Amino acid sequence: MNNVIIIGCGFAGLEAAFMLRELGYKDGLTVVNRSEDMVFTPSLIWIPPRRRTLEELSIKLKPVLSFKNINFICGEVASIDAKNSTVALVNGRSLDYDYLIIALGWQSKRSHIKGNEKILFPCDVPDVLKLTEAIGKMENGSITFAIEGERPGPGAEFLGWIDVYLRERGIRDRFTLNLVDEKHKLLVHLGRQACEILTANFKERRINLYLGKNLVAAKSDIAILEGGIEIPSDLICAIGKVEAPKPLQKLDFSEADGFIPVNNDLTSKAYNNIYVAGDAASFGIKKVPKVAPLAIEQAQIAAINLISSLGVGRKRFFDVSSALANVKILSDFGGIAALAQGNKTLQCNTAIGMLKVLIERRYLSMHRAGRVARHVA
Ligand SMILES: Cc1cc2nc3c(=O)[nH]c(=O)nc-3n(C[C@H](O)[C@H](O)[C@H](O)COP(=O)(O)OP(=O)(O)OC[C@H]3O[C@@H](n4cnc5c(N)ncnc54)[C@H](O)[C@@H]3O)c2cc1C
Description:
By secondary structure, the chain is an alpha/beta fold. The protein is built from 10 helices and 24 strands. The chain has helices at 11-22, 61-66, 125-137, 153-168, 185-190, 192-204, 246-249, 292-309, 320-326, 353-368, and strands at residues 3-7, 28-33, 37-39, 58-60, 71-74, 77-81, 86-89, 94-96, 99-102, 107-108, 141-147, 175-181, 207-211, 215-219, 222-225, 230-232, 235-239, 242-243, 260-261, 274-276, 281-282, 328-332, 337-341, 344-349.
């Protein structure tokens, strides 16, 4: 009897688990995740403005997995011993596997900013809750969001929605809002047209823009940018630079930032009984965007190939060039939204924001009912 372990149960882990059962895999299947819930992270931007609660964005894992006869362990992975095919949990438990699917995702990189303990990184769930509490209590002041790295979009989304929230509370004129954009990351992310519309929109909403600058340090009440520019800030948030979770950073077959090099069948380059799907995977110099639809696609391909290695069905390959050209990014800045593909703007208007709501509802209702997303096959 084979024993498959999936570590991490976000977009990739949940999809891989469902897909293995959908493909008829009947042997041992265990999913390990550090929390009881899968969280629909693209909608975290709506928690600070009170459009969503964390509960509304969560899927309780135990019931959906046990319904499919999948064993669920709520626990934190401490390390992977690939040579001996075991995974160690922080509570001391050790799990053996024949096949491992790594779907641990990513975490915000913090160490490159001096004084980072004074900064919130709201792409990480605990920090989005701290941000929500903080802006709920603030009656005035200055809020600075710095965007950088691979995942800049949510920074402008969070700030745009905080602007909406403060207007709804009738206290917007008591606040200064600042957006620091390292090397015009938004331009690359949204395409030129949407970037120009968004820049004009933010200026109209009196959101100060510091373009082409990095946040390098935080002191109490001051955000310090490259070149020594200081922005008085009661609250500083940073978004965008990512690294792999700790257990992956310690592996001798991961890259410097912890992401794991994979072949295009999604096996790790070092071990053919280890598959990697979602943000934890690295495709080398081809910087495949770390986004939910690609995490789902990779998870489905990993499941298909794992089954294929057991002698059932043909292998599938992840097409990096097609992913780079076709992946669409939909961002909602509160009042205005943008859809981009391959660094080009497709649409930038108010209406397209509704699509983000529909995608969230569809994903959550399907997966709460134990159904996989549309198949890659
Ligand atoms: C604010 C925000 C907005 C975003 N907006 C979009 C968007 O509009 N469109 C889009 O496509 N993508 C968006 N993304 C990116 C998208 O959320 C990720 O690409 C996606 O979550 C990657 O899926 P994953 O399964 O690889 O990782 P995740 O979904 O992060 O899942 C990883 C799982 O592993 C668990 N885990 C981590 N470490 C451990 C450990 N040591 N032990 C046990 N479990 C562990 C985590 O708890 C988590 O459940 C956004 C992300 C954020 C944060």
